[in-house]
Amino acid sequence: MKTxxxxxxxxxxxxxNTALNYAMGLAEHAGTQVSLLHVLGRGERDGHTRxxxxxxxxxxxxxxxxxxxxxxxxxxxxxxxxxxxESARGHSYMVxxxxxxxxxxxxxxxADILKMVRRSAVxxxxxQESSPLGNTLGRIVMPVAGHTDIGRMxxxxxxxxxxYASEVHVFQLMRPNEEPSEELLSNKLIMLQRLERxxxxxxxxxxxxxxxxxxxxxPTIRYAEKVGAGCIAIMSHASDxxxxxxxxxxxxxxxxxxxxxxxCC
Length: 265
Hints:
By secondary structure, the chain is of the alpha/beta class. 38% of the residues lie in helices and 22% in strands. Strands 3-2-1-4-5-10-9-6-7-8 form a 10-stranded mixed β-sheet, sandwiched between helices. The longest helix has 17 residues, at 14-30. The chain is elongated, with a radius of gyration of 18 Å.
């Protein structure tokens, strides 16, 4: 079955150039196309400005060498609403860049990036401006999550792992004197069984906690950086177990200092 195309959202900045490069790499592995989307805000809809933006998008495509693989989409409307609607129109993944917690361009590409990925109808790969180009995504770190709906994340990770022949690390942080919940243990088994059934290379990692950390983001990022991971896969919404601190932790993950792309489902 042919993979549906890759949606890539752009705000016309350098980080969007990086996102387009990642989207094209994903499309090349999947044998499909890229839809490059820019949402026209209220100040961008007159004829001259629209033409300038269209020309800038064509430059992005040409610079990325994607003339035969990328189609350009210019849609008027509210950024969040348009991205949500377009993501549901027959795409397999979305790729978007983030400016980090202090980003200024188009709002949702900055501090509210988590809101965007939560509204996406498809798994979303979030990259940073200096995320490494030529990333082979050969190793994916997938932290064990206590969510009741991990099926979508497993679908997305398995599909990406097949495309890139990735090794998936099922990662669990083991804290002293703390017993994992039944939900975590059950989901871990589901993850491992699914990867085994799909015939995908994988590794069970039980990482002992060596420094004090309330959350899960920093230990996960440290491990991913240590093993040279090309991607970290997380659920974009909070589980009941960690709801009180989940948003801050997930934002730390998306803007991690190691610049590792994060696949959100």
